[in-house]
Amino acid sequence: MEAITLPIYSVEGREIETIKLNPAVFGIEVNKDAVYQVVNAYRANQRQGLASTKTRGEVSGGGRKPWKQKGTGRARVGSTRSPLWRHGGVVFGPHPRDFSVTLPQKIRNLALKSVLSAKVKENNLIVLDEFKVESPKTKLAAKVFDNLKIHPSKKDKFDVLFLMTKLSKEISRPLSNIDFVNIGLAKDANTYEVLAHKKVLITKEGLRQLTERLKS
Fold this sequence. Notes:
It is a single chain. The chain is α/β, with parallel strands linked by helices and 216 residues long. It has 2 domains: 4-47 and 102-214, Ribosomal protein L4/L1 (Ribosomal Protein L4, Chain: A), CATH 3.40.1370.10; 49-98, no CATH class. It is 32% helix and 15% strand. It has a 6-stranded mixed beta sheet with strand order 2-1-3-6-4-5, sandwiched between helices.
């Protein structure tokens, strides 16, 4: 596999150098099966599984038999908490459960490499030398994206995923006010969030960390 070369931009939007991407991470063929499994597992792991209903034995009251078994002409009933009655229990209702799914690390890495490779092929992976602004102001942070010609689109809710090496108040505060940008750590990047965003902006050091994590 041939190495892929991408430009590295400054916060002013100028191309200052180039970097060669590891083809084993950013140049593989997309494995749709791995991506499908990882996305499904991610969404399942977000479920809390707290929905709960009470059976007839868990509903309070109903200890007394409403009427005698025979002689009334009415249907026999043993408790007012029967599922057939109002305020009665639920027969096959939901109960707290664990929806979590565990996948092998190799499949998770393969899926992440697949979506990163797709972003490269689509020219939607942008490398930034370093994110720095004179002061933690949203206007200055937004200017960086304007210099990089990254603008919000009307169709996509999540346009840009910005992956960095560390998050501080000076960085996260101005970026959090830009509605089309979501920020995260490069070392914690996952398949779902990369796939959910149109573009991925990553710092040079963040790219190195992500490559080190996935190249083995």
